[in-house]
UniProtKB/TrEMBL annotation:
Record keywords: Cytoplasm, GTP-binding, Nucleotide-binding
Gene Ontology molecular functions: GTP binding; GTPase activity
Domain of life where this protein originates: Bacteria
Location(s), subcellular: Cytoplasm
Protein name from the UniProt record: Ribosome biogenesis GTPase A
Similarity annotation: Belongs to the TRAFAC class YlqF/YawG GTPase family. MTG1 subfamily.
Domain CP-type G: 11-178
NCBIfam families registered for this protein in UniProt: GTPase_YlqF
Taxonomic lineage: Bacteria, Bacillati, Bacillota, Clostridia, Eubacteriales
UniProt-listed InterPro entries: G_CP_dom, GTP-bd, GTP-bd_ortho_bundle_sf, GTP-bd_ribosome_bgen, GTPase_MTG1, P-loop_NTPase
Taxonomic source organism: Caloramator mitchellensis
Coiled-coil annotated spans: none
């Protein structure tokens, strides 16, 4: 499956981030808790150069709780502060600002020593499309200033949002990178809807998804759709279609509809909490 999606606004955003960097105290890098490897833009660390950073594993409500903890411990082991967050219940949202103040405490103290008092902390929020940047900002600010949506490419330009007199956040459009060398990365980005649906073959994608999930989380598929695990994932997609009444022309399975049912149910968590990636897979990546 050849997936490419790198529109002009992403090029522009990268440039805008570089230009805004001098105003920024700290970077908040949002990753998808289900896929922290694939949802990490390899260009980001270079773009933000040596700015202090906090990693947010967002959509933690959709990922396996035990694996979320493994990830937090993993980041700790490489000296990166990370928090698992979910913008639906607001889990750990109240820990963000205290954690950031702790990360940049030396700089804040230096400012005080220089007599700079009362200047707000400015944080840049970055991440791939659809990871939840704008929702996260709205949750912290407790208002719906940033536009959100359940598809990639909603935010089109950067925007400053004032949380209070102490804290300001910059929302940015999601950015990918020009080429995915690793098929796993491309697929996982497509599963979590970081890539525009229109450029994907959803039937092919969902067959790959079944092939992966039937090994890592077979019970989620069995329990949700009341189907058996089979060697051939295409047969399993047909079974899902049959169970969900995705039928055309009398008796034929509508594979397109079955694929949409499956991917949508995964994306909103109806398939259960599924982590696509664990820290064990990162050996040699970070
Ligand atoms: N389950 C769950 N859904 C979330 C969470 N955070 C955000 N979402 C959903 O994810 C979708 C994308 O959210 P946005 O905030 O628009 O994502 P974004 O990163 O700003 O996306 P772009 O602007 O397109 O780059 C929306 O449907 C949100 O409701 C979360 O913690 N858990
Ligand atoms: Mg957005």
């Amino acid at each position: 499956m050849n997936i490419q999606w790198y529109p002009g606004h992403m090029v522009k955003t990268k440039r805008q981030i570089s230009e805004s960097l001098k105003l920024i105290d700290v970077v908040i890098e949002l990753l998808d808790a289900r896929a922290p490897i694939s949802s990490k833009n390899p260009d980001i660390d270079e773009i933000i150069s040596n700015k202090p950073k906090i990693v947010i594993l967002n959509k933690a409500d959709l990922a396996d709780e035990k694996i979320n903890k493994e990830w937090i411990n993993f980041y700790k082991s490489i000296n990166i502060v990370a928090l698992d967050v979910d913008c639906i219940t607001g889990k750990n949202i109240n820990k963000i600002f205290p954690s950031i103040k702790n990360i940049i405490k030396n700089k804040l103290q230096k400012d005080i020593n220089k007599g700079i008092i009362g200047r707000p902390v400015r944080a840049l929020v970055v991440g791939i499309p659809n990871v939840g940047k704008s929702t996260f900002i709205n949750k912290i600010a407790n208002k719906s200033t940033a536009q959100t949506g359940d598809r990639p490419g909603v935010t089109k330009s950067k925007q400053w949002i004032k949380v209070n007199n102490e804290f300001e956040l910059m929302d940015t459009p999601g950015i990918l990178w020009p080429k995915f060398d690793d098929e796993m990365v491309a697929l996982h980005l497509a599963y979590i809807k970081a890539i525009k649906e229109e450029i994907l073959d959803i039937v092919e994608l969902s067959i790959k998804f079944i092939d992966e999930i039937k090994k890592s989380n077979p019970n989620n598929l069995k329990d949700r759709f009341k189907i058996e695990i089979k060697d051939d994932p295409t047969e399993m997609l047909k079974d899902i279609g049959r169970k969900r009444g995705c039928i055309v022309a009398g008796s034929e399975i509508d594979m397109y509809r079955a694929a949409n049912v499956l991917m949508e149910e995964f994306r909103i968590g109806k398939l259960g909490r599924i982590s696509l990636e664990t820290p064990n897979m990162i050996i040699g990546v970070e």
